[in-house]
Amino acid sequence: MKTQVPLPLAKYAFDDAATRELWSKSFRLTLVNFLVRSVIWVALLVTAMVGPDRDGSQTVTGLAAFLSMITAFLLIRPARKLQWTLLVARVLKSGPWRGVTAVRRADVKLPSGVAVELLFGDGDGDGDGEDAEDAADGPVGKESRVVAARTWRRRVPWPDEASQKCWVVTSEDPRLPSVLARPGGFDPLTLHRAR
């Protein structure tokens, strides 16, 4: 039987030590990945522009020019993840964690992300009951609408379990997505309106 992880009671979700540690680890790995790829790209670019042209051979500069184009495309993924990680931090700094039950909806097909139904105030004391707000918008009771859960890659590994006790942070800025944290130390997910 799984043990319940207690809901952090910090004023803001980012103030929780475990949340900050998980976010910091993800941020550091992403930043190091981006910086290493950037340094390699700049080195290849400089080599291609002012490379050694000894004996009339342009093999080194040609190869460096070709590899610098490939490396430029390899910068896109860590740049997107870095942007997504900073967005998650902004949302985590905007409010506290709230308990929620997340149910994967296999019957709903979405163009990106996984269809998840969030159930607030399900009577077990974890949710906020009548004061709960849907992660997408508006106040709800015991029902919620289906939202699209995704990461920076827009794909989400989700276990086959019917439902999970999760935590959610909803920003007061309607332009920002909500953030969902699943048990088990997974990266957080952003929640977007299902269209």
Topology of this protein?
Elements: H1 17-50, H2 59-74, H3 76-92, E1 98-104, E2 114-119, E3 146-150, E4 163-169, E5 178-181, E6 189-193
Antiparallel strand pairs: 1-2, 1-4, 2-3, 3-6, 4-5, 5-6
Description:
There is one protein chain. The chain is of the alpha+beta class and 195 residues long. It contains three helices and six strands; from the N terminus they run αααββββββ. It has helices spanning 17-50, 59-74, 76-92, and strands at 98-104, 114-119, 146-150, 163-169, 178-181, 189-193. Strands 1-2-3-6-5-4 form a six-stranded antiparallel β-barrel. The two termini are 36 Å apart. The model is unreliable at 123-140 (pLDDT under 50).
Q: Mind summarizing the main beta sheet? A: 6 strands, antiparallel, barrel
Low confidence ranges: 123-140
Radius of gyration: 22 Å
How many DSSP H or I helices?
3
Structural class comes to: alpha+beta
Strand content: 15-25%
Instruction: Report the mean per-residue pLDDT as an integer.
Output: 78
Strand line-up of the largest beta sheet:
1-2-3-6-5-4
| Overall 3D shape | elongated
Distance between the termini: 36 Å
Overall helicity:
25-40%
Number of strands: 6
Order of SSEs: HHHEEEEEE
Short description:
This protein has 195 residues and is of the alpha+beta class.
Can you tag this structure with a few keywords?
195 residues; alpha+beta; elongated
